[in-house]
User: Fold this.
Amino acid sequence: MLSNAVLCVLALAAVFGTVVRGGESQGRECGIIVFIHVGKTGGTTVADHLHRRKYVREYVPLGHCNMVGGFGYEDQWHHLQEVVTDMSQSQPFVDRTPVKYNKLGIHDHFTQGLDPNDPKSPWWALVDSHTCTPGLMWSFERFLEMKRQMEQSGSGCRMILATAMRNPESRFWSNYFYQAKNGKEEFQIPKGSDEKKQKHAMKLVKSHPNPQSTALAYNCDLTTVPSRPNCSTSAIKQSKVRHNLAQVCSHNFFVTPTTDIVCFLGVASGGRQSW
Amino acid sequence: MVDDKVGDLLIADLEQFDVVGSSSKLLDFVNGVLKSANFTQVEQLPHENKNPHHEEHFDLTAIHDALEQHHAVDFKVYHKFFPE
Assistant:
């Protein structure tokens, strides 16, 4: 039997719309959606839907090729780490000034709820981890450490890790015709007999084994120049680094950019496997 | 390159994800992510297959068999989450 005092507290919580879960703060709902975007899995459609949400305030383009250079790979991770730190240290999380605003959220016709200017409205950041991002063998422990940091901080903010895969046969054909349409030389479908086309497709099946797992696991090499991932096929072939060796550096990952780079180099040189 | 061991590591990583989706059920995936963030879910996706496919020029059975051999880890990881 619940006491009157407990019932009173529950009623007040219901009235004010705040439900206190175990160990969480009563602040606004907050967090980071990390979308690992593997090419030809419908990811552009997914990312577009996530972008067009009014409570997604900040965009963290982790690893977009055209962002690398002036805003290098490690800069992008430090941008993400800033969000994680803000969402871990403020209890409850109130607000932050985005490094990059998500401008598409104003087109949101779906989300029902509080006005985004309401201080109690949800506050989310979106990470779209796509091309030019080293894969999970490099990045998973790093994401996991950030997730732990946020979710164990008591701020109430969460990190959602999400990815989509595609049936490998369906993905092969999608990629095959996509690359041909976009003029990638190796994928140019030969004119002439069906026999020639068959031979060409078969060659690509063999020369690009397990492309989806390769993208998820490695995607790009960070060994040569840590601040600029190399997404060439030859670089991927060299990137045989076990992700769990990154734990060696996990305590130093977020100290300074220099530490990160040195740590990554250490993992890269010490973690090579002859699988 | 990716082999069975890497496939196993990938599966272990992906099992710790909050949402793993399949592009064959993209709406379910998007709604899974939206639900995790307590966003309003969607009922349809404006997704068009932008690339024309002309698979009629190929021996699909032979390609299928080759894919099963050379993309075996991809199949293993995918079917771990989406057994068909």
